[in-house]
Amino acid sequence: MQKEDNLKDIISHAKEYGFVFPSSEIYDGLSATYDYGQLGVELKNNIKSYWWKSMVQMNENIVGLDSAIFMHPKTWKASGHVDAFNDPLIDNKDSKKRYRADVLLEEYIEKIRAKIDKDVNKGIKRFGDDFDKNQFLATNPNVLRNMAKIEDVEERMKDTLGKDDLEGVYNLIIDLEIVCPVSGTKNWTEVRQFNLMFSTELGSVSGDAATIYLRPETAQGIFVNFLNVQKTGRMKIPFGIAQIGKAFRNEIVARQFIFRMREFEQMEMQFFVRPGEEMKWYEHWKNQRIAWHSKLGLGEENYRFHDHIKLAHYANAAADIEFNFPMGFKELEGVHSRTDFDLKQHEEHSGKKLQFFDPEMNQNYVPYVVETSIGLDRMFLAVLSSSFKTEKLENDSERVVLSLPAALAPFKVAVMPLTKKDGHPEKAREIMNALRLEHNCAYDEKDSPGKRYRRQDAIGTPYCVMVDHQTMEDNTVTIRDRDTMEQDRVSIDELASIIESKVSMTNLLR
Ligand code: GAP
Fold first, then answer.
1. Which residue's CA is minimally distant from atom 4 of ligand 1?
2. What is the CATH code of the structural domain delimited by 1-72+213-392?
3. Exposure letters 53-74 (e unless 16+ CB within 10 A, then b)
4. 219 lines ligand 1 (CB under 6 A)
5. Would you say the CB of residue 334 lies under 6 angstroms from ligand 1?
6. Best substitution site from 305, 373, 381, 383 to test ligand 1's pocket, by max atoms within 8 Å of Cβ?
7. Of 123, 239, 320, 494, which residue is least crowded by CB atoms under 10 Å?
8. Taking CA 233 as the corner, what is the angle to CA 231 and CA 239, rounded to the nearest 5 degrees?
9. Tens of pLDDT along 41-55?
């Protein structure tokens, strides 16, 4: 199946089963905004919970925060967002489509990388186990030429984007003969900067109103509360503040489902460290975050690090954790060494000191910051897309299954009576009422058992419990595993511990 087709299937599956709906759909939707349905909200809450627990519950020196979306307008002047939170945009005059110039260039590089991968795959096919990939990469003339091309484009991107040389970015697009994916032409406008913040007005009396912004990141709410939390929580450096919340960006290219939205959610943690120790912590958090992802079992091969070519205005080092989405490898999370930029800027603009007295050093300083920042919606898409499978079964039929990490699944167990009589429904409800104290449970008595199992497979429920005639005689039920489809007969008394052992979040946190 083509990757793009796969995305289409995922979008329709997400809608059909109540995970994600287009926002205000009865009015034909609003571009790049989505609503999470009855199952989507459960999956999203479980992802949040895994992140929050890993950060706040499992780290003595990390605490949480829930700051307001509206912040004093000076915040965004201080943070640099008013002046520098821009994307370079370019329009194609024939298709009238608007693009991010840097994205066009990155996609160009991706295409060359795909050519290298293709050559490698050909070699593997031809020579099998005798194929020496490293030697091939180091010597094959095609590969070497393509690698040099990538290096050259990356160098020119770094140079032009880093200096905000918009003419240089334009020239690069022209030199590389990049065409518009829609019109196929090279008829481009010049490159312009576009600020991504949404603004609105505070206050109801005309003239008194002040322009305020919808926050484009949750991080600034953490910075302005740095001293409040440090003092009231008696926190000592190094320590972190974690926050989950909405952020808003007027994205130029808003497409690819919930990957790039104008209203989205971030899970961010700012870790305050001694000046000079930031690189050590930067490496530490890169390792911690990739370990957090690995435990979910979505496939090690689906992740890779990508060091930033163009550093944001606040960073001295930055890497993305990229995930193999249906559209290819794209940014899922960022780990940024933000220096003391933000706290110093807020000191300057507010006139308040934002410093820490370090008793071991007997010295005041503005801490440096290492940030981990992950988009919740992107994480949702990563989980959903890598779990969505169509499997061929032995009897030549097919099943659609969401092999979600069990701890994240919306329902952990579905309880079903084999028939609607003979006391089966009553017994099933009794079992469900006991299990729901710990887990989100579904009850399903409609249609044949086979159809009911398929329904639960499609929404990723790890276990189905069936009450049948034998249950009424010996207090046993069958329990069916979503992934193996195997059924075991177990005593009702064992159910809770069997389910707990597979679906518990504790296993992920351990
Ligand atoms: N505080 C740093 C910061 O905001 P960022 O790289 O701009 O850094 C962090 O954003 C993460 O937020 C990204 O890795 C991505 O997962 C998510 N994100 C950013 N823009 C998004 C958008 N328009 N839609 C969905 N998620 C987005």
1. 217
2. 3.30.930.10
3. ebbbeeeeebbebebeeebbee
4. yes
5. yes
6. 373
7. 494
8. 90
9. 999 999 999 999 999
Q: What angle do CA 235, 237, 241 make, to 5 degrees?
A: 60
Q: Measured from the CA of 216, which atom of ligand 1 is nearest? A: 4
CATH of the domain spanning 396-509: 3.40.50.800
Higher per-residue confidence, 219 vs 86:
219
Residue 360 burial (CB count, 10 A): 8
Q: Among 378, 379, 381, 383, name the best residue to mutate to test ligand 1's pocket (greatest count of ligand atoms within 8 A of Cβ).
A: 378
Residues 6+ apart with CB under 8 A from 471: 424, 427, 477, 492
| Residue of 109, 113, 107 lying closest to 137 (CA atoms) | 113
Report yes or no: 258 and 20 within 8 Å, Cβ to Cβ.
yes
pLDDT confidence tier of residue 356, bands split at 50, 70 and 90: very high
pTM over 0.85: yes
End-to-end CA distance of the chain: 36
Ligand 1: does its nearest atom lie under 6 Å from the Cβ of 249?
yes
100 in ligand 1 pocket by Cβ < 6 Å?
A: no
Ligand 1 close to Cβ of residue 251 (< 6 A): yes
Cα Rg, the chain, nearest whole Å: 26
Does the CB atom of residue 378 touch ligand 1 within 6 A?
yes
> How far apart, in whole angstroms, are the C-alpha atoms of residue 69 and residue 97?
31
Q: Is 261 in the pocket of ligand 1 (CB under 6 A)?
A: yes
Q: Structural domain boundaries of the chain?
A: 1-72+213-392, 86-195, 396-509
Backbone phi, psi, residue 221, to 5°: -60, -30
Closest C-alpha residue for ligand 1 atom 27:
375
Q: In the Cβ-directed half-sphere of 454, how many Cα atoms lie within 13 Å?
A: 13
Does ligand 1 have an atom closer than 6 angstroms to the CB of 373?
A: yes
Distance CA 419, CA 203 (A): 61
Q: Is 338 in the pocket of ligand 1 (CB under 6 A)?
A: no
Does the beta carbon of 102 lie inside 6 Å of ligand 1?
no
- Model confidence at 324, pLDDT cuts 50, 70, 90, reads very high
Angle between helix 166-175 and helix 141-162 axes, rounded to 10 deg: 160
